[in-house]
Amino acid sequence: MPNRRLLRRLRHLLQVSAPGLLALSGYRPAWLPKDVAAGLSVAAIALPVGIAYADLAGVPPVIGMYSAIFPLFAYALFASSRQLMTGPDAATCILVAATLAPLANGDAAVYASLLLALTIMSGVFYVLAGAGRLGFMANFLSQPILTGYLNGIALLIIVGQLPKLFGYSGSSPDFLGKVLELFERFGLSHWPTAILGAAMLVLLMAVMRCLPRLPGAFVVVAVSILLVKALGLDQMGVAILGEVPAGMPSLVLPSFDPAAFGDLFGAAAGLVLVSFTSGVLTAKSFARRNGYEINANQELIAFGACNLASGIAQGFPVTGADSRTAVNNAMGGKDPGDGSGGRRRHAAGGHLRHRAARLCP
To answer: What Rg, from alpha-carbon coordinates, does the chain have?
Structure first.
């Protein structure tokens, strides 16, 4: 009897503090194939996105890769969401660059140190907000807000990728401006880039429809790399990333001018508000779609752990990633739970596979 009480208390402690560890204890080996496929697909998107957002934040590409990888481990331990993927976000990267660029005054070393301090400070604010049970703010985010937000994000992502897809230079910062640029600069497109991009988009749709068990995004990235290498498309003007330093990040402690503390404090508070709103909207939307609930206070703590992990790895602030979460959900990544939400999603996946089989015998 004492042992049972101890086990119940330990289980309750894990459920409250680190639900991911408790979920891992109930993991089923049968889920592994779909989780591997989902992981490959998410990685195929997360790493290029991290590299792109690193440029937006004003740091080397490898920092974006660190920010896309290490926070996921921390989130998995502390989160209540079963599907949410974390990583770099456009809004937070823009805020980071706007805050730190004037403070660093062109000095890359100072910028890196300020970024580290800002990321860790954001993580601390998140944890304090979670401990203070400020997650009630998420209750004011209704279903129409969730639906509008996710559809708006989808449109912004599509329009934001048009210059890269067609290979022309885009400079407009707003949605309508980017749409108008497509018509104005379409004739200036770099056609090898446009043909490669269109072909890979068709390939992605074909794989998702006819071979849904394959990690479509990973297949497309692999085929793209092979085509660029085999056909020498980089010599024809197709932009490639180039060499990225290998290895693990080194442990560095933040150091900065104390006069900058007030600016960093305000920026960290703003980042937490913006990134939590974005992340919890995505988490709530996928939770509702799959029939379970999230704990907003636990999500605050999980986002705090993410940002602390990112800071230790020399990364920048992160939050919930909508596009990568959608890929994880679409690829059938198994949630740690065993409730109706998981069964509902698995049934939906079976229905989609049945339709795909009829379309592609």
So the answer is: 21
Q: Is the pLDDT of residue 348 over 50?
A: no
CB atoms within 10 A of CB 233: 18
Section 233-250 average pLDDT: 79
Determine the pLDDT at residue 280. 87
Cβ atoms of 272 and 318 closer than 8 Å: no
Per-residue pLDDT at 342 exceeds 50: no
Which tokens is 161 given? 């990728």
Contacts of 271-275 with CB under 8 Å at 24 or more apart are 271/92, 271/95, 271/96, 271/118, 271/122, 271/317, 272/122, 272/125, 272/126, 272/129, 274/91, 274/92, 274/95, 275/89, 275/91, 275/92, 275/122, 275/303, 275/317, 275/318, 275/319, 275/320
With CA atoms as reference, report the closest residue to 333 among 14, 38, 10.
38
Domain range list for the chain: 31-159+262-359
- pLDDT digits over 32-49, tens only? 888 888 888 888 778 878
Q: What is the mean pLDDT of residues 222-232?
A: 91
What is residue 276's three-state secondary structure?
helix
| Per-residue model confidence (pLDDT) at position 105 | 87
CA 305: distance to chain centroid? 15
